[in-house]
Design brief:
- The radius of gyration is 24 Å and the shape is elongated.
- Helix 3 packs antiparallel against helix 4.
- The chain has one domain: de novo design (two linked rop proteins), CATH 1.20.1440.
- 74% of the residues lie in helices and 0% in strands.
- The protein has 8 helices and no strands.
Length: 206
């Protein structure tokens, strides 16, 4: 009986020691920060999907305008098709090449939409179309939410990557396969902290 109790006691001590070791090497922090990045990434995808869902209605409304620039519409449709063709799985955030392709495709869609909104300012009927105005307001709100979601993801990945690169937690990262994650890149970091300028009143200056 005494031997059995001693074995259980030693087992408990060993388990406690292992738990303390994992805590000290950052294992639990990797678990927490990895989940945070996944959650933040899911929100980014939700907002991109919301934007993609708006586009068919916008395109359909614009098509009703006589003599509208077909090239502009075509670029929006093609950019949406390209962006939605990339399967945005959770594993995408650990694949720098795939992540960059996804980011580039979304950037092309943003540019095509911005051009479309600028061109619509030349068509009084569209400016007077309440349905189209409502769609543009929804698009503006979605673009703002995309910016916020991207900003949160950037912060979550930064926190995770600092842990993955720091000593001694970088050893834990190698041991348990927690690679550094790719992140969104912008030419101007201030773009992350403020919504994009989407003007619905006058064409953007060239």
């Amino acid at each position: 009986m005494t031997f059995s109790i001693a074995r259980r006691l030693l087992g408990a001590i060993a388990a406690l020691g292992a738990a303390l070791a994992l805590t000290g090497c950052g294992y639990n922090d990797f678990q927490r920060l990895d989940e945070q990045t996944k959650s933040a990434w899911s929100e980014v995808l939700n907002q991109y999907q919301r934007r993609a869902d708006l586009i068919p209605n916008i395109v359909a409304t614009v098509k009703g305008e006589a003599n509208f620039e077909q090239e502009t519409l075509t670029k929006v449709v093609e950019a949406r098709a390209k962006a939605t063709s990339i399967q945005a799985t959770p594993e995408l955030v650990n694949n720098p090449e795939a992540f960059n392709k996804f980011q580039a495709a979304q950037g092309e869609l943003s540019s095509a939409l911005s051009r479309l909104l600028v061109v619509t300012e030349n068509y009084p009927n569209l400016k007077a179309n309440q349905g189209f105005q409502d769609l543009r307001v929804q698009l503006e709100g979605t673009e703002n939410r995309i910016t916020v979601a991207r900003g949160r993801y950037v912060k979550a990945v930064q926190d995770y990557n600092v842990l993955a690169r720091s000593f001694p937690t970088n050893l834990t990262a190698m041991l348990f396969s927690y690679p550094v994650k790719p992140n969104f890149t912008v030419q101007n970091e201030a773009q992350i902290s403020q919504p994009p300028a989407v003007s619905f009143d006058k064409p953007a200056s060239k």
